[in-house]
Design a protein that fits this description.
globular, alpha+beta, binds protoporphyrin IX containing FE, Cytochrome p450
Length: 502
Protein backbone atom coordinates (compact mmCIF):
# COMPACT_ATOMS: atom_id res chain seq x y z
CA UNK A 1 0.00 0.00 0.00
CA UNK A 2 1.31 3.33 -0.97
CA UNK A 3 1.38 5.99 1.85
CA UNK A 4 0.39 9.55 0.85
CA UNK A 5 2.87 12.41 1.25
CA UNK A 6 0.75 13.86 4.02
CA UNK A 7 0.68 10.66 6.07
CA UNK A 8 4.42 10.32 5.64
CA UNK A 9 4.89 13.82 6.93
CA UNK A 10 2.62 13.31 9.96
CA UNK A 11 4.20 10.08 11.04
CA UNK A 12 7.82 11.15 10.69
CA UNK A 13 9.66 11.71 14.07
CA UNK A 14 11.02 15.10 12.87
CA UNK A 15 7.43 16.36 12.47
CA UNK A 16 6.58 15.47 16.08
CA UNK A 17 9.53 17.52 17.29
CA UNK A 18 8.34 20.47 15.17
CA UNK A 19 4.67 20.27 16.33
CA UNK A 20 5.39 20.01 20.04
CA UNK A 21 6.06 23.74 20.61
CA UNK A 22 2.93 24.56 18.61
CA UNK A 23 0.80 22.34 20.84
CA UNK A 24 2.34 23.85 23.97
CA UNK A 25 1.69 27.42 22.79
CA UNK A 26 -1.75 27.86 24.45
CA UNK A 27 -0.36 26.55 27.74
CA UNK A 28 2.59 28.91 27.49
CA UNK A 29 0.28 31.83 26.72
CA UNK A 30 -1.83 30.97 29.77
CA UNK A 31 1.20 30.88 32.09
CA UNK A 32 2.75 34.07 30.70
CA UNK A 33 -0.51 36.04 30.72
CA UNK A 34 -1.31 34.92 34.26
CA UNK A 35 2.06 35.57 35.83
CA UNK A 36 4.18 37.82 33.67
CA UNK A 37 1.92 40.28 31.83
CA UNK A 38 0.59 42.93 34.23
CA UNK A 39 -3.11 43.23 33.45
CA UNK A 40 -4.95 46.46 34.40
CA UNK A 41 -6.73 45.57 37.66
CA UNK A 42 -10.03 47.05 38.84
CA UNK A 43 -9.44 49.73 41.47
CA UNK A 44 -10.18 48.42 44.98
CA UNK A 45 -13.40 48.76 46.95
CA UNK A 46 -13.68 51.98 48.96
CA UNK A 47 -11.73 51.68 52.23
CA UNK A 48 -13.40 50.50 55.42
CA UNK A 49 -13.00 48.30 58.48
CA UNK A 50 -11.67 44.79 57.75
CA UNK A 51 -14.46 42.31 58.29
CA UNK A 52 -13.95 39.74 61.05
CA UNK A 53 -16.13 36.71 60.17
CA UNK A 54 -17.46 36.03 63.66
CA UNK A 55 -17.87 39.59 64.91
CA UNK A 56 -19.34 40.69 61.60
CA UNK A 57 -22.33 38.42 62.19
CA UNK A 58 -23.01 39.80 65.66
CA UNK A 59 -22.49 43.30 64.33
CA UNK A 60 -25.27 42.70 61.79
CA UNK A 61 -27.82 42.59 64.58
CA UNK A 62 -27.00 46.13 65.71
CA UNK A 63 -28.34 49.03 63.69
CA UNK A 64 -25.66 50.93 61.78
CA UNK A 65 -26.68 54.46 62.59
CA UNK A 66 -25.82 57.65 60.76
CA UNK A 67 -23.69 58.54 63.80
CA UNK A 68 -21.58 55.34 63.75
CA UNK A 69 -21.19 55.59 59.96
CA UNK A 70 -20.08 59.24 60.28
CA UNK A 71 -17.42 58.13 62.78
CA UNK A 72 -16.18 55.45 60.37
CA UNK A 73 -15.96 57.97 57.57
CA UNK A 74 -13.73 60.17 59.75
CA UNK A 75 -11.27 57.27 59.89
CA UNK A 76 -11.58 55.91 56.34
CA UNK A 77 -12.65 58.88 54.22
CA UNK A 78 -15.70 60.28 52.46
CA UNK A 79 -16.48 57.04 50.60
CA UNK A 80 -16.32 53.88 52.70
CA UNK A 81 -17.35 50.28 52.24
CA UNK A 82 -18.36 47.59 54.70
CA UNK A 83 -19.04 43.92 54.22
CA UNK A 84 -22.32 42.94 55.87
CA UNK A 85 -22.87 39.23 55.45
CA UNK A 86 -23.07 38.70 51.69
CA UNK A 87 -23.79 42.34 51.05
CA UNK A 88 -21.44 45.23 50.25
CA UNK A 89 -22.48 48.51 51.80
CA UNK A 90 -21.06 51.76 50.43
CA UNK A 91 -21.59 55.05 52.27
CA UNK A 92 -20.94 58.54 50.87
CA UNK A 93 -20.37 61.20 53.56
CA UNK A 94 -19.17 64.37 51.81
CA UNK A 95 -20.76 66.72 49.28
CA UNK A 96 -18.24 65.57 46.61
CA UNK A 97 -19.06 61.89 47.23
CA UNK A 98 -22.80 62.70 47.17
CA UNK A 99 -22.37 64.42 43.77
CA UNK A 100 -20.80 61.21 42.41
CA UNK A 101 -23.70 59.07 43.65
CA UNK A 102 -26.70 61.32 43.07
CA UNK A 103 -25.58 63.32 40.03
CA UNK A 104 -22.64 61.97 38.03
CA UNK A 105 -23.77 58.33 38.33
CA UNK A 106 -27.42 59.04 39.13
CA UNK A 107 -28.75 56.54 36.57
CA UNK A 108 -26.54 53.72 37.87
CA UNK A 109 -27.54 54.33 41.50
CA UNK A 110 -31.22 55.08 40.96
CA UNK A 111 -32.27 51.50 41.72
CA UNK A 112 -33.22 50.58 45.29
CA UNK A 113 -32.14 47.86 47.68
CA UNK A 114 -35.53 46.56 48.78
CA UNK A 115 -35.62 45.47 52.43
CA UNK A 116 -36.65 41.83 52.91
CA UNK A 117 -39.35 43.11 55.29
CA UNK A 118 -41.33 44.60 52.38
CA UNK A 119 -44.09 41.99 51.97
CA UNK A 120 -44.20 42.02 48.16
CA UNK A 121 -42.85 39.75 45.45
CA UNK A 122 -40.36 41.13 42.92
CA UNK A 123 -43.07 41.49 40.28
CA UNK A 124 -45.45 43.20 42.74
CA UNK A 125 -42.70 45.68 43.57
CA UNK A 126 -42.22 46.54 39.91
CA UNK A 127 -45.99 46.81 39.39
CA UNK A 128 -47.16 48.52 42.58
CA UNK A 129 -44.50 50.12 44.67
CA UNK A 130 -42.15 53.08 45.08
CA UNK A 131 -39.52 50.45 45.92
CA UNK A 132 -39.43 49.63 42.21
CA UNK A 133 -36.75 50.69 39.75
CA UNK A 134 -36.66 54.42 38.93
CA UNK A 135 -36.38 53.51 35.25
CA UNK A 136 -39.51 51.29 35.29
CA UNK A 137 -42.68 52.44 33.53
CA UNK A 138 -44.64 52.05 36.77
CA UNK A 139 -42.43 54.41 38.74
CA UNK A 140 -42.20 56.99 35.97
CA UNK A 141 -45.98 56.87 35.63
CA UNK A 142 -46.79 57.07 39.34
CA UNK A 143 -44.30 59.89 39.96
CA UNK A 144 -45.85 61.80 37.01
CA UNK A 145 -49.39 61.32 38.40
CA UNK A 146 -48.30 62.47 41.87
CA UNK A 147 -46.60 65.49 40.34
CA UNK A 148 -49.67 66.45 38.34
CA UNK A 149 -52.40 65.71 40.90
CA UNK A 150 -50.72 66.33 44.27
CA UNK A 151 -47.54 68.38 44.07
CA UNK A 152 -47.92 70.80 41.14
CA UNK A 153 -48.18 74.50 42.06
CA UNK A 154 -51.84 74.39 40.99
CA UNK A 155 -52.68 71.34 43.14
CA UNK A 156 -50.89 72.79 46.16
CA UNK A 157 -52.79 76.06 45.76
CA UNK A 158 -56.04 74.09 45.60
CA UNK A 159 -55.10 72.28 48.85
CA UNK A 160 -54.52 75.56 50.68
CA UNK A 161 -58.16 75.96 51.85
CA UNK A 162 -58.04 72.49 53.33
CA UNK A 163 -54.76 73.14 55.15
CA UNK A 164 -56.30 76.30 56.61
CA UNK A 165 -59.27 74.33 57.93
CA UNK A 166 -57.02 71.79 59.64
CA UNK A 167 -54.75 74.47 61.09
CA UNK A 168 -57.76 76.40 62.42
CA UNK A 169 -58.94 73.20 64.14
CA UNK A 170 -55.46 72.67 65.62
CA UNK A 171 -55.19 76.23 66.93
CA UNK A 172 -58.78 76.05 68.29
CA UNK A 173 -58.06 72.82 70.13
CA UNK A 174 -54.82 74.23 71.60
CA UNK A 175 -56.64 77.37 72.82
CA UNK A 176 -58.84 75.17 75.01
CA UNK A 177 -55.69 73.77 76.65
CA UNK A 178 -54.04 77.07 77.43
CA UNK A 179 -51.71 76.85 80.41
CA UNK A 180 -51.79 73.05 80.50
CA UNK A 181 -49.13 70.66 79.23
CA UNK A 182 -49.87 69.30 75.78
CA UNK A 183 -48.07 66.64 73.79
CA UNK A 184 -47.35 68.86 70.81
CA UNK A 185 -45.98 65.88 68.86
CA UNK A 186 -49.40 64.21 69.01
CA UNK A 187 -51.31 67.39 68.11
CA UNK A 188 -49.08 68.05 65.08
CA UNK A 189 -49.26 64.39 64.08
CA UNK A 190 -53.09 64.42 64.15
CA UNK A 191 -53.18 67.62 62.06
CA UNK A 192 -50.72 66.32 59.46
CA UNK A 193 -52.53 62.95 59.25
CA UNK A 194 -55.83 64.73 58.64
CA UNK A 195 -54.32 67.01 56.00
CA UNK A 196 -53.16 63.86 54.19
CA UNK A 197 -56.55 62.13 54.68
CA UNK A 198 -58.34 65.11 53.15
CA UNK A 199 -55.90 65.62 50.30
CA UNK A 200 -56.01 61.93 49.36
CA UNK A 201 -59.68 61.00 49.94
CA UNK A 202 -61.47 63.99 51.52
CA UNK A 203 -61.88 62.58 55.05
CA UNK A 204 -60.27 63.07 58.43
CA UNK A 205 -58.33 60.05 59.60
CA UNK A 206 -58.26 60.82 63.34
CA UNK A 207 -60.16 63.08 65.74
CA UNK A 208 -57.73 65.76 67.01
CA UNK A 209 -58.89 65.01 70.56
CA UNK A 210 -59.02 61.22 70.21
CA UNK A 211 -55.84 60.01 71.78
CA UNK A 212 -56.52 56.30 71.30
CA UNK A 213 -57.27 56.55 67.59
CA UNK A 214 -54.23 58.78 67.08
CA UNK A 215 -51.97 56.29 68.85
CA UNK A 216 -53.37 53.46 66.77
CA UNK A 217 -52.62 55.18 63.45
CA UNK A 218 -49.21 56.21 64.74
CA UNK A 219 -48.66 52.57 65.78
CA UNK A 220 -49.12 51.09 62.34
CA UNK A 221 -47.18 53.85 60.57
CA UNK A 222 -44.29 53.26 62.97
CA UNK A 223 -44.76 49.49 62.52
CA UNK A 224 -43.94 49.82 58.81
CA UNK A 225 -41.04 52.24 59.35
CA UNK A 226 -39.50 50.04 62.04
CA UNK A 227 -39.91 46.88 59.95
CA UNK A 228 -38.01 48.34 56.99
CA UNK A 229 -35.30 50.02 59.05
CA UNK A 230 -34.49 47.32 61.64
CA UNK A 231 -31.37 45.19 60.99
CA UNK A 232 -32.52 41.99 59.33
CA UNK A 233 -30.37 38.89 58.77
CA UNK A 234 -32.51 38.16 55.73
CA UNK A 235 -31.06 41.26 54.05
CA UNK A 236 -27.48 40.16 54.71
CA UNK A 237 -27.84 36.49 53.76
CA UNK A 238 -30.59 36.53 51.10
CA UNK A 239 -29.55 33.25 49.47
CA UNK A 240 -29.68 31.28 52.72
CA UNK A 241 -32.80 32.86 54.15
CA UNK A 242 -35.05 32.85 51.07
CA UNK A 243 -38.64 33.40 52.18
CA UNK A 244 -37.91 32.69 55.86
CA UNK A 245 -38.70 35.75 58.04
CA UNK A 246 -36.12 35.43 60.86
CA UNK A 247 -37.23 38.41 62.97
CA UNK A 248 -40.91 38.48 61.95
CA UNK A 249 -40.40 41.90 60.30
CA UNK A 250 -42.15 40.97 57.07
CA UNK A 251 -45.15 39.80 59.09
CA UNK A 252 -45.12 43.01 61.12
CA UNK A 253 -45.06 45.07 57.90
CA UNK A 254 -47.88 43.06 56.32
CA UNK A 255 -50.11 43.39 59.40
CA UNK A 256 -49.46 47.13 59.71
CA UNK A 257 -50.17 47.65 55.98
CA UNK A 258 -53.45 45.76 56.12
CA UNK A 259 -54.61 47.74 59.12
CA UNK A 260 -53.73 50.94 57.34
CA UNK A 261 -55.72 50.02 54.21
CA UNK A 262 -58.76 49.77 56.51
CA UNK A 263 -58.61 53.58 56.86
CA UNK A 264 -59.90 54.18 53.33
CA UNK A 265 -61.48 50.83 52.36
CA UNK A 266 -65.07 52.09 52.86
CA UNK A 267 -64.41 55.39 51.06
CA UNK A 268 -62.98 53.60 48.02
CA UNK A 269 -65.96 51.20 47.95
CA UNK A 270 -68.48 54.06 48.11
CA UNK A 271 -66.60 56.11 45.56
CA UNK A 272 -66.53 53.22 43.11
CA UNK A 273 -70.31 52.84 43.45
CA UNK A 274 -70.81 56.47 42.55
CA UNK A 275 -67.97 56.43 40.08
CA UNK A 276 -70.20 55.68 37.13
CA UNK A 277 -72.36 58.71 37.90
CA UNK A 278 -69.70 61.29 38.62
CA UNK A 279 -66.48 61.62 40.57
CA UNK A 280 -67.39 64.84 42.34
CA UNK A 281 -64.75 65.24 45.00
CA UNK A 282 -61.91 65.86 42.60
CA UNK A 283 -59.47 64.67 45.20
CA UNK A 284 -56.54 62.31 44.57
CA UNK A 285 -58.75 59.22 44.97
CA UNK A 286 -61.09 60.43 42.22
CA UNK A 287 -58.10 61.12 39.99
CA UNK A 288 -56.83 57.56 40.52
CA UNK A 289 -60.22 55.91 39.98
CA UNK A 290 -60.78 57.84 36.78
CA UNK A 291 -57.36 56.67 35.58
CA UNK A 292 -58.43 53.05 36.14
CA UNK A 293 -56.37 52.31 39.27
CA UNK A 294 -57.32 49.02 40.98
CA UNK A 295 -57.95 48.77 44.76
CA UNK A 296 -54.60 47.02 45.15
CA UNK A 297 -52.80 49.89 43.39
CA UNK A 298 -54.64 52.52 45.43
CA UNK A 299 -53.88 50.74 48.72
CA UNK A 300 -50.18 50.51 48.04
CA UNK A 301 -49.86 54.06 46.74
CA UNK A 302 -51.75 55.61 49.69
CA UNK A 303 -49.83 53.45 52.15
CA UNK A 304 -46.45 54.50 50.75
CA UNK A 305 -47.35 58.20 50.51
CA UNK A 306 -48.56 58.23 54.12
CA UNK A 307 -45.57 56.26 55.39
CA UNK A 308 -43.10 58.50 53.56
CA UNK A 309 -44.83 61.82 54.20
CA UNK A 310 -46.32 61.88 57.71
CA UNK A 311 -43.45 61.07 60.04
CA UNK A 312 -40.98 63.21 58.08
CA UNK A 313 -43.28 66.25 58.04
CA UNK A 314 -44.30 65.88 61.70
CA UNK A 315 -40.78 65.39 62.99
CA UNK A 316 -39.51 68.45 61.07
CA UNK A 317 -42.17 70.65 62.69
CA UNK A 318 -41.54 69.23 66.18
CA UNK A 319 -37.79 69.51 65.82
CA UNK A 320 -38.06 73.13 64.76
CA UNK A 321 -40.24 73.93 67.76
CA UNK A 322 -37.74 72.25 70.04
CA UNK A 323 -34.79 74.10 68.50
CA UNK A 324 -36.62 77.42 68.73
CA UNK A 325 -37.39 76.80 72.40
CA UNK A 326 -33.74 76.08 73.05
CA UNK A 327 -32.76 79.22 71.12
CA UNK A 328 -34.95 82.10 72.43
CA UNK A 329 -33.27 84.68 70.17
CA UNK A 330 -34.32 82.79 67.08
CA UNK A 331 -37.84 82.37 68.49
CA UNK A 332 -38.19 86.12 69.02
CA UNK A 333 -36.89 86.92 65.53
CA UNK A 334 -39.37 84.50 64.05
CA UNK A 335 -42.28 85.87 66.06
CA UNK A 336 -41.39 89.40 64.97
CA UNK A 337 -41.31 88.39 61.33
CA UNK A 338 -44.62 86.54 61.58
CA UNK A 339 -46.31 89.44 63.34
CA UNK A 340 -45.24 91.89 60.71
CA UNK A 341 -46.60 89.75 57.86
CA UNK A 342 -49.48 87.53 59.06
CA UNK A 343 -52.97 88.48 60.09
CA UNK A 344 -54.78 86.56 62.83
CA UNK A 345 -58.15 86.85 61.12
CA UNK A 346 -57.02 85.64 57.77
CA UNK A 347 -55.28 82.33 57.51
CA UNK A 348 -55.65 82.62 53.75
CA UNK A 349 -52.88 85.20 53.55
CA UNK A 350 -49.68 83.25 53.76
CA UNK A 351 -47.03 84.88 51.57
CA UNK A 352 -44.17 82.45 52.20
CA UNK A 353 -41.81 84.52 50.03
CA UNK A 354 -42.16 87.38 52.55
CA UNK A 355 -41.07 85.12 55.42
CA UNK A 356 -37.33 84.52 54.89
CA UNK A 357 -36.55 83.87 58.56
CA UNK A 358 -39.26 81.20 58.75
CA UNK A 359 -37.81 79.50 55.68
CA UNK A 360 -34.31 79.76 57.17
CA UNK A 361 -35.53 78.06 60.39
CA UNK A 362 -36.92 75.13 58.41
CA UNK A 363 -33.68 74.77 56.39
CA UNK A 364 -31.62 74.91 59.55
CA UNK A 365 -33.71 72.15 61.15
CA UNK A 366 -33.42 69.97 58.07
CA UNK A 367 -29.64 70.55 58.00
CA UNK A 368 -29.23 69.41 61.60
CA UNK A 369 -32.00 66.82 61.77
CA UNK A 370 -32.77 65.37 58.33
CA UNK A 371 -35.57 62.86 59.05
CA UNK A 372 -34.04 60.36 56.59
CA UNK A 373 -30.44 60.74 57.80
CA UNK A 374 -29.08 58.16 55.31
CA UNK A 375 -31.74 58.70 52.59
CA UNK A 376 -33.38 55.42 51.50
CA UNK A 377 -30.94 52.75 50.33
CA UNK A 378 -29.97 53.07 46.67
CA UNK A 379 -28.53 50.09 44.73
CA UNK A 380 -25.79 49.94 42.10
CA UNK A 381 -27.44 48.75 38.89
CA UNK A 382 -23.99 47.79 37.59
CA UNK A 383 -20.35 47.87 38.71
CA UNK A 384 -19.21 51.47 38.68
CA UNK A 385 -16.14 53.56 39.41
CA UNK A 386 -16.62 56.23 42.09
CA UNK A 387 -13.75 58.47 43.27
CA UNK A 388 -11.31 55.90 41.86
CA UNK A 389 -12.85 53.04 43.82
CA UNK A 390 -14.95 50.17 42.53
CA UNK A 391 -18.53 50.00 43.69
CA UNK A 392 -19.69 46.50 42.77
CA UNK A 393 -22.99 45.71 41.12
CA UNK A 394 -25.87 45.33 43.64
CA UNK A 395 -23.98 47.14 46.41
CA UNK A 396 -26.31 48.93 48.85
CA UNK A 397 -25.45 52.62 48.65
CA UNK A 398 -26.26 55.20 51.34
CA UNK A 399 -25.63 58.93 51.48
CA UNK A 400 -25.10 60.22 55.01
CA UNK A 401 -26.85 63.56 54.67
CA UNK A 402 -26.77 63.98 58.46
CA UNK A 403 -22.95 63.90 58.40
CA UNK A 404 -22.84 66.24 55.38
CA UNK A 405 -25.11 68.73 57.19
CA UNK A 406 -22.65 68.84 60.11
CA UNK A 407 -19.40 68.79 58.12
CA UNK A 408 -17.12 71.47 59.68
CA UNK A 409 -15.35 72.02 56.34
CA UNK A 410 -18.67 73.12 54.86
CA UNK A 411 -20.58 74.69 57.75
CA UNK A 412 -19.32 77.21 60.31
CA UNK A 413 -20.14 76.15 63.87
CA UNK A 414 -21.96 73.16 62.44
CA UNK A 415 -23.78 71.96 65.56
CA UNK A 416 -25.21 75.39 66.41
CA UNK A 417 -28.80 76.18 65.44
CA UNK A 418 -28.30 79.42 63.49
CA UNK A 419 -31.02 80.08 60.88
CA UNK A 420 -29.19 83.34 59.98
CA UNK A 421 -26.66 81.29 58.00
CA UNK A 422 -29.34 80.88 55.31
CA UNK A 423 -30.45 84.52 55.16
CA UNK A 424 -27.85 85.78 52.71
CA UNK A 425 -27.28 82.47 51.05
CA UNK A 426 -28.77 80.81 48.01
CA UNK A 427 -28.29 77.34 49.52
CA UNK A 428 -31.50 75.37 49.29
CA UNK A 429 -32.71 71.80 49.81
CA UNK A 430 -34.09 71.30 46.31
CA UNK A 431 -31.38 68.89 45.21
CA UNK A 432 -28.90 71.27 43.57
CA UNK A 433 -26.76 72.05 46.63
CA UNK A 434 -25.00 68.88 47.70
CA UNK A 435 -24.16 70.31 51.15
CA UNK A 436 -27.87 70.25 52.05
CA UNK A 437 -29.70 67.12 50.96
CA UNK A 438 -32.58 66.33 53.35
CA UNK A 439 -34.75 65.32 50.36
CA UNK A 440 -31.97 63.64 48.34
CA UNK A 441 -31.26 64.65 44.73
CA UNK A 442 -31.52 63.29 41.19
CA UNK A 443 -33.99 60.70 39.93
CA UNK A 444 -34.86 59.52 43.42
CA UNK A 445 -35.35 62.92 45.02
CA UNK A 446 -38.36 62.99 47.37
CA UNK A 447 -41.42 63.53 45.16
CA UNK A 448 -43.23 65.16 48.12
CA UNK A 449 -40.65 67.98 48.38
CA UNK A 450 -42.93 70.72 46.92
CA UNK A 451 -45.66 69.83 49.45
CA UNK A 452 -43.28 69.50 52.41
CA UNK A 453 -41.61 72.82 51.55
CA UNK A 454 -44.98 74.56 51.94
CA UNK A 455 -46.84 72.65 54.62
CA UNK A 456 -44.00 72.54 57.17
CA UNK A 457 -43.59 76.36 57.31
CA UNK A 458 -47.37 76.82 57.14
CA UNK A 459 -48.11 74.75 60.26
CA UNK A 460 -45.07 76.02 62.07
CA UNK A 461 -45.96 79.65 61.40
CA UNK A 462 -49.43 79.34 62.92
CA UNK A 463 -48.11 77.51 65.99
CA UNK A 464 -45.51 80.19 66.66
CA UNK A 465 -47.79 83.09 65.68
CA UNK A 466 -50.73 81.99 67.82
CA UNK A 467 -49.02 81.00 71.07
CA UNK A 468 -46.14 81.63 73.41
CA UNK A 469 -44.64 78.27 74.22
CA UNK A 470 -42.68 76.92 77.13
CA UNK A 471 -41.16 73.53 77.74
CA UNK A 472 -42.72 71.49 80.53
CA UNK A 473 -39.62 69.45 80.99
CA UNK A 474 -36.38 71.37 80.76
CA UNK A 475 -34.36 68.14 80.61
CA UNK A 476 -34.13 68.26 76.84
CA UNK A 477 -30.39 67.73 76.58
CA UNK A 478 -27.81 67.18 73.84
CA UNK A 479 -28.54 63.45 73.57
CA UNK A 480 -32.17 64.24 72.88
CA UNK A 481 -31.15 66.82 70.30
CA UNK A 482 -28.65 64.44 68.66
CA UNK A 483 -30.99 61.52 67.95
CA UNK A 484 -32.81 61.43 64.65
CA UNK A 485 -36.09 60.12 66.07
CA UNK A 486 -37.88 62.04 68.78
CA UNK A 487 -38.62 59.19 71.12
CA UNK A 488 -39.86 61.19 74.10
CA UNK A 489 -43.18 63.03 73.88
CA UNK A 490 -42.69 66.76 73.29
CA UNK A 491 -44.56 68.26 76.25
CA UNK A 492 -45.14 72.01 75.89
CA UNK A 493 -47.37 74.61 77.48
CA UNK A 494 -49.16 77.01 75.08
CA UNK A 495 -50.29 80.51 76.08
CA UNK A 496 -52.31 82.49 73.56
CA UNK A 497 -50.36 85.49 72.26
CA UNK A 498 -52.02 88.83 72.94
CA UNK A 499 -49.58 91.33 71.56
CA UNK A 500 -46.67 91.56 69.22
CA UNK A 501 -43.30 90.51 70.59
CA UNK A 502 -40.85 93.23 71.58
C1 LIG B 1 -39.86 67.21 55.60
C2 LIG B 1 -40.48 66.30 54.88
C3 LIG B 1 -39.83 65.25 54.05
C4 LIG B 1 -38.52 64.85 53.95
C5 LIG B 1 -37.33 65.41 54.71
C6 LIG B 1 -38.46 63.77 52.98
C7 LIG B 1 -37.29 63.13 52.60
C8 LIG B 1 -37.24 62.08 51.70
C9 LIG B 1 -36.04 61.38 51.34
C10 LIG B 1 -34.65 61.68 51.87
C11 LIG B 1 -36.37 60.42 50.44
C12 LIG B 1 -35.42 59.41 49.79
C13 LIG B 1 -34.56 60.05 48.73
C14 LIG B 1 -33.48 59.10 48.24
O1 LIG B 1 -33.49 57.93 48.58
O2 LIG B 1 -32.59 59.55 47.51
C15 LIG B 1 -37.79 60.49 50.24
C16 LIG B 1 -38.49 59.66 49.41
C17 LIG B 1 -39.85 59.72 49.27
N1 LIG B 1 -40.70 60.67 49.82
FE1 LIG B 1 -40.19 62.17 51.06
N2 LIG B 1 -39.70 63.54 52.51
C18 LIG B 1 -40.57 64.42 53.11
C19 LIG B 1 -41.92 64.54 52.88
C20 LIG B 1 -42.63 63.79 51.98
C21 LIG B 1 -44.02 63.98 51.68
C22 LIG B 1 -44.90 65.08 52.25
C23 LIG B 1 -44.35 62.98 50.79
C24 LIG B 1 -45.67 62.68 50.13
C25 LIG B 1 -46.78 63.25 50.32
C26 LIG B 1 -43.17 62.19 50.54
C27 LIG B 1 -43.11 61.10 49.71
C28 LIG B 1 -41.96 60.39 49.40
C29 LIG B 1 -41.95 59.19 48.57
C30 LIG B 1 -43.15 58.54 47.92
C31 LIG B 1 -40.61 58.78 48.49
C32 LIG B 1 -40.05 57.59 47.70
C33 LIG B 1 -39.60 58.09 46.34
C34 LIG B 1 -38.84 57.04 45.53
O3 LIG B 1 -38.37 56.07 46.07
O4 LIG B 1 -38.77 57.22 44.30
N3 LIG B 1 -42.14 62.71 51.26
N4 LIG B 1 -38.31 61.52 51.00
Amino acid sequence: MQESMAELFLHSPQTHILLLPLLLLPLLYFIISKHLIKKPRNPPLPPGPTPCPFLATIHLLKPLTHVSLAQLSQTYGPLISLKLGMETLVVASSPAAAVEILKTNDRTFSARTVPHAVPLTASEIERLSFWGDALSDHLKNVRAICRAELFSAKSLEAQRRLWQEKVAEMVGSLRTKEGAAVDLGRVVFATVVNVFGNVLFSEDIVGVEEERCCNEVRGFLRGIIQAISAPNLADFYPLFVGKFDPHGLRKKHRESSERMWGLWERVVRERRRSAEAELKNRDFLDALISRGFTDEEINKLFEELLTAGIDTTTSTINRTMLELLSSPESMIKLQQELHSVLNQDSLTDFPLEQLPYLQACVKETLRLHPPAALLLAHRARETCLVMNYTVPRDARVLVNVWAIGRDPTVWEEPVEYRPERFLNSTRDFKGNDFELLPFGAGRRICPGLPMAAKIVPFLLAWLVYSFDWSLLDATVDETFRATSQMVQPLLLIPRARKMSPE
